[in-house]
From TrEMBL:
InterPro entries: RNA_pol-assoc_fac_A49-like. One of its GO terms (cellular component) is nucleolus. It holds the Pfam family RNA_pol_I_A49. One of its GO terms (molecular function) is DNA binding. GO terms for biological process: DNA-templated transcription. The keyword Transmembrane does not apply. This is DNA-directed RNA polymerase I subunit RPA49. The keyword Nucleus applies.
Length: 425
């Protein structure tokens, strides 16, 4: 900033200090070419207003204005005193004057309401409010106004650049090629959240192996569908399923304490003790997976309650959530893509439970997904989808979709949403 000094010598009784001037927008090239005018308050009888001053300076290009009151005043004037010393080189003596600093701001014609009221009347309500804020608003309101105007200019520039870039890409590749790229990207994005698929499997149970690393978050974190420690931890909570009675199943169905798939499969637990225990553990874990998919932002350390083993809660948090920063704290988030991942693993586990043929509509209702989304996941997992009559006792007895995992695996096809894009084109 450039600093110039301008002294005003008026009536000694007024105790008018010398004026130190700073220009906020750059260096002062020719101080001798600047003309100053000082205006004082006419309310000399008011002790609060009698010392108010407005300083105006004019150059060949711009006019500047500064004052010692209001939001534009320098706060340093009220915190300390300034003095100006004038040295007489002949006598070697210095005269000291009280000084006051003025910050000179450029006065732009756009900040002044035009005299032509017709132009003012043609302005929108938003523009009129902005003019009021410029003239009478607080410093906070003026900062917000300047910020909004700068953002509006930035958005216009960004939109123009994006539109031009999109037009260049369309001209270079063509619409058909772009649609094909979108379809391939959708398939790749879907495959990220699917369990490992062994296309060369010799039997259905080896396509999505129970021993494969079905849970991973960026990298493989387990060499089994459930690690031995995690599988062992399911023994406690799944014990209630092993010896469950038909009366208890009816009560749980009435209370809707578990998903429909689990309640239906509890009616058909095998008689063999080992197989019964294994299926009970799988059903309990599938039920907790579905309940976990309903969460969005997880703030608790044990979101599934005290009955869920700590090792299982830790696996769910690590495999099916992403970390996000919100309101000064780190939180776990279940996004739409991670909910798709949960649905894919629920389907894989249900296939092992149901001998590789499942009612997709039942799982769709349990997961609260749209039918098109559920069918996209099933087809991406190479299931053959067919129509099947809904099982008795289920809500809205209708034609359900049956998903079957059989060999040879069907060839992957574009989802329904991708086909719609092509038709629209």
């Amino acid at each position: 900033m450039a600093t110039a000094t301008w002294c005003y010598r008026g009536d000694p009784e007024e105790e008018q200090p010398a004026l130190l001037v700073t220009f906020s927008n750059g260096q002062l090239q020719r101080p001798d070419a600047v003309r100053f005018s000082l205006y004082r308050s006419s309310e000399v009888g008011n002790p609060r207003k009698r010392r108010r001053r407005i300083l105006v300076s004019e150059t060949e290009r711009l006019s500047y204005v500064g004052n010692n009151f209001g939001s534009g005043a320098m706060k340093c004037n009220s915190l300390c005193r300034y003095f100006l010393g004038v040295l007489n080189k002949d006598t070697g003596q210095m005269e000291v004057y009280n000084a006051e600093i003025f910050n000179m701001q450029p006065l732009l014609s756009d900040n002044v309401i035009p005299d032509d009221t017709r132009d003012y009347q043609n302005k929108s309500y938003r523009e009129k409010v902005d003019l009021c804020i410029e003239a009478f608003g607080t410093s906070k309101q003026k900062r917000a106004l300047n910020s909004r105007r700068m953002n509006a200019v930035g958005n216009d520039i960004l939109n123009t650049a994006v539109t031009k870039a999109a037009a260049d890409v369309i001209d270079a590749k063509g619409v058909t090629a772009l649609i094909q790229d979108v379809a391939q990207d959708d398939e790749q994005n879907m495959s990220i959240f699917l369990p490992p698929c062994h296309e060369d499997a010799d039997k259905p149970e080896n396509v999505y192996k129970f021993e494969d690393s079905i849970f991973f978050s960026g990298s493989v974190v387990s060499s089994a569908f459930l690690s031995p420690a995690e599988y062992e931890a399911l023994q406690g909570p799944a014990a209630a399923f092993i010896n469950i009675t038909s009366e208890e199943i009816a009560k749980k169905t009435e209370e809707k304490s578990h998903c429909s798939f689990v309640l239906e499969e509890l009616k058909f637990l095998p008689a063999d003790e080992k197989s019964r225990d294994h299926k009970a553990r799988c059903l309990w874990f599938l039920d907790i997976l579905i309940k976990f998919s309903f969460l969005k932002i997880i703030k608790k350390k044990h979101p599934m309650g005290p009955e869920c083993p700590h090792i299982i809660s830790r696996r769910l948090m690590k495999s099916f959530t992403s970390l996000t920063y919100n309101n000064g704290s780190v939180q776990n988030l279940i996004s739409a893509s991670l909910k798709t991942k949960i649905a894919a693993y629920v389907i894989a586990l249900a296939l092992h439970i149901k001998n590789f043929q499942i009612d997709l509509t039942v799982l769709q209702n349990d997961l609260k997904l749209h039918e098109s989304r559920m069918m996209d996941i099933a087809r991406a997992m190479r299931l053959k989808v067919s129509k099947a009559k809904g099982m008795p006792g289920l809500e809205n007895d209708q034609n359900h979709k049956l998903g079957t995992l059989s060999l040879p695996l069907p060839v992957q096809k574009a989802s329904g949403s991708q086909r719609k894009r092509k038709k629209m084109n």
